[in-house]
């Protein structure tokens, strides 16, 4: 009887757990940045692209932004897109970026309208390194550094 009850409990937990669709190997990303410009990940083919999910309230995110920004400036074959993953007014994010400028465009994605081709972050920061072929080369959970990016790109 205990085995049956345990099996029933396990089945109920599995049914209640969220189901995540597999993220495409070659994700698409079309957004409008906070400065009103369109951004299309496909237009970046031939370059490495850092897709960085962050939030203004995330202390590790704030600490890693300057390193990503410097890395992009120092590597002409690398670009980045910041994805401010939060439900706040866009003007608040712009004000944050005025105090913490970055060298790459930033778009806002709200939690009720997540990106279709990227998994919802299970924590912030979350970063995807997209290879020149448009495929996900590496997925990072937690803060990254220029040294980590150098090692991942192999340069």
Describe this structure in words.
The chain has one domain: Glutaredoxin (3-Layer(aba) Sandwich). The model is unreliable at 4-20 (pLDDT under 50). It is globular, with a radius of gyration of 18 Å. The longest helix is centred in the middle third of the chain and has 16 residues, at 59-74. 32% of the residues lie in helices and 23% in strands. The chain has a five-stranded mixed beta sheet with strand order 5-4-3-6-7, covered by helices on one side. The protein has 155 residues and is α/β, with parallel strands linked by helices. This is Thioredoxin domain-containing protein. It is found in: Cell envelope. Keywords: Cytochrome c-type biogenesis, Disulfide bond, Redox-active center, Signal. Residues 20-155 form the Thioredoxin domain. Pfam families: AhpC-TSA.
